[in-house]
Amino acid sequence: MSHTPFRIAKVNTDAIAGNVKRLYEITGVDDVLIVVKANAYGHGMVPAAKAALAGGATWLGTADIAEALTLRDAGITAPVLCWIHAPDETFDEAVENDITLGAVSVAQLNAIASAGHRAHTTPRVHLKLDTGLSRNGASPEQWADFMRTAAELHASGDLDVEGVMSHLSNTSDADDLEQLKVFTVGLSELKDAGLEPKYVHLAASLAALTLPETRFNMVRSGIAAYGIAPTEELRPEQFGLTPAMTLETRVVAVRRVPENTGVSYGYLHRTAGENTLALIPLGYGDGINRDASMNGPVLLNGETYPVAGRIAMDQFLLNVGDDPVAVGDHVVLFGDPALGQPSVHDWAAAANSIAYEIVTRLIGTRLEYEYVGNA
C-alpha cells in the first residue's frame, strides 16, 4: 500500500552543517555541542545529529538517556551528554553505552559510580551548577558536599569528572553576567576541591552568539543550529544562520462562497464579500499552534495570506479573495525568509509564542520528513 505525502517537513541538512560551522566562526571555541533533544527541535534527531557532526560538532546533547540511546542505536559514536534523569535512574544502560552524564547531586554521583562498577568502566560526568536559573543543578549551598564527593570519586577512579556546566536565564545581559560571576566562583571552588575539568560550558545559543565572556572552551547550541534565533528580538540572518526547515503542503479543496459566510469553528472570520476559500490540510494535530488562528502567515502562489478563522485539528482555511487558486497548489507555512517564505519567527509572533515552541510542537505528528542536502 502506498500514498502520496502531502504534509511535509523538508529539512536541509546542509543548512544545519553550515550553521554549526558558522557557530565555530562566531565563538572561536574548541568544542561545539549541538543539542538534539526533543527530536532535534522538531527537525529529526538522527539526521540532524549526523548533519551537525558533518559540520564539525564534537559533541551532541540530549535532555535524557532515552534520547541519547536513540543516537547510539543509530550507530552514532560521537560523545553525547544528557542531563535530566529519573529520580530512581540506575544509569546502567547509559554507562554501558558510553553516554556522558550531567550530575546535579551527591546521590547522582554515587549512583553513576555504582553503575560504573557494575559495567567495569569509569563513567564520565559533567557537574551541573545552578548559578541563578533555579532549575536543574547543584545550588551554591550544596556545592561543598557535591564538589567534595565528585573530587573523591574522581581521585579514586570511580568517575571521570571531565566537565562542568551551568545554564543562563537569558533575562538580560546584566542578569547573565551576574550568573557568570557565580559560575566563576563555582569554578574556583571546584579547583580548591582538586578538580579542573577539561570542558567548561555555560553559554547556550543566545550567549554563544552575543556574550563572548560566557563562552569558555565549549558552547552548547540548540535552536541556533537549526537556523532559528534564540529570542524573538533577533533574527538568524543577523548571524549568518540559515533556517533548516520548510513546512509545506498543498491545497486540498477550493470553494467559492458568498458574502458573510462563516469560516471554521466559532466563525471568527466571516467573508466580507464573495470570496474563495482554500483548504489547507494541517492543524493542531500536526503541531500547528491553534493560537495562530486568524494570524498565521501562509505562502500560496507567491502571496502571503493569514489563516482565516480557527485552526482545527486537521485543517484550516485561507481566504484568498478573488485570487486564483487550485487544488494541488503548493503551500508553505514557514521556511527561509531569504526565499520569500514566512519564518518560524513570523508564526511565533502570530501565536504570541516563541520560535522554539513552533518547531518542537511538530514532534510525534503526521508530518512526513524529507531530507535534502549532502550533510
Q: Mind describing the biggest β-sheet?
A: 9 strands, mixed
Looking at the overall shape, the CATH architecture of the largest domain is: Alpha-Beta Barrel
Mean pLDDT: 96
* Beta-strand segment tally: 19
Describe the global form.
elongated
Count up the helices.
11
Summarize the helix and strand pattern as letters. Answer: EHEHHEHEHEHEHEHEHEEEEEEEEEEHHE
User: Structural class, from secondary structure content?
Assistant: alpha/beta
CATH superfamily of the largest domain: Alanine racemase
How large, in whole angstroms, is the Cα Rg?
24 Å
Number of domains: 2
Helicity level, as a percent range? 25-40%
Give the low-confidence spans.
none
Content of β-strand? 15-25%
Strand order of the largest sheet: 11-14-17-16-15-18-10-1-19
Distance between the termini: 31 Å
What is the CATH level 1 assignment of the largest domain? Alpha Beta
Per the CATH scheme, the topology name of the largest domain is TIM Barrel
